[in-house]
Amino acid sequence: MPVYEFQCKCGHITEELVRMDTKTVECPKCHGKAKKILSACSFELKGGGWYADGYASSKKK
Ligand SMILES: [Zn+2]
């Protein structure tokens, strides 16, 4: 399973191993909802959607 970053409105960013269709996780700091954000280093917009795994593994530097 891929690691996604989630950012809460309190500003806290957490990384979680979650299923692809998971959109929010509970913020460990304030127990609010942290939303999934795109990590710039592992994701490129190439007609994308959520098929980033192939790109990420083939374009590792
Ligand atoms: Zn929070």
From TrEMBL:
It holds the Pfam family Zn_ribbon_8. Residues 1-39 form the Putative regulatory protein FmdB zinc ribbon domain. It comes from the Bacteria. InterPro entries: Regulatory_FmdB_Zinc_ribbon. NCBIfam families: CxxC_CxxC_SSSS. This is Putative regulatory protein FmdB zinc ribbon domain-containing protein. It comes from Desulfosarcina alkanivorans.
